[in-house]
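Sequence in, structure out.
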Amino acid sequence: MSGIQGALPPLTAEEAAHSERLIAVIRDTIDAAGGWISFEQYMELALYAPGLGYYSAGSRKLGAAGDFVTAPEISPLFGRTLAVQCEEILASLGPVDLLEFGAGTGVMAADLLTELAERGCMPHRYLIVEVSADLRERQCATLRARLGEWAEQHVEWLDRPPRGFTGIVLANELLDAFPVERFRIRGDTANSLGVTWQLGRLDWSEARATDRSLSAVRTIETALKRPLPDGYTSEWSPRLAPWIATLAGSMERGVVLLIDYGLPRAQYYRPDRSDGTLLCHFRHHFHPDPFIHVGLQDIGAWVDFTAVADAAVTAGFRVAGFATQAHFLIGNGIEKLLGAIPTSDLEGRLQVARQAMMLTLPADMGERFKVIGLTKGYDAPLAGFSVRDLAATL
């Protein structure tokens, strides 16, 4: 732990005090629970504790001055290419609403809507579900600066998806931030890997798995057609299926596009991936320790896209396609948009080309990030899955 912490940028006195306040809340929660809490509960507090959690406090999270950079922050090509897919859907559904979960700084929405405006294919409304008050303010400022009066009249922020929704649902890097349960295989059973307070600091601690966690592990092993080896440590997302079920229940008709880093289950739980996929982000440094810089760093886990597909089908969705981010963007003509971006000099053209490479090359985001399409009452093919559809791997 100390090696990792020493390699990270130092905290200011104010940041350290903020983290200590959240640690005190977590420690009180652990004490009230008898000395142990699940990692899911810990991750919930670290990310979402009111006023103190990473997504609830006001620190800058995205972009060069934040902790990590998302695809929309890398290049407007991302949002503009996504707009091509939205245009195809809107042409079939009509001028319905777009709903985005976790809109970050609002850059993706602004780029997407700018492209749709140029194509004469605007949605009726652009709705945003956002838990962070700080990010809501940034989204509002970005969209009003970029879209002016249209944003004031047609962009709305919600606490939950509206009932009877017809339209397009978008979520980029949302599912990885759902609090996960961690487990460790012990012989022919599994323990829950939770959090305790020992020797003056937060630390891992095993406890007997709940029936819910044990059932989740058995489901994974059944799907893999093999037991996980002794000592194998990983995670599963207990909030994923309920979230998808709620979304399906609120949706009348339309298309859902979920974009995140992740894998099909057979690759996610490979024997050599024996310590899970938990990843923390702090000022563009990636590391596996969730117990340092508490409340100041992002904590995420890779997405099991097979679990997404299973939950979606159970909830009444149809899986319309599954692709790498690169294939999805190519299917929607990113190369045409690349050529259409006005640049006045060689350096500008090179910069745009570099951005496109970051979005599509396997060594960058192209293969690590995936896109899954879910539909309800919508059977037309989606261009994003026309180049290569990997749904058979789910």
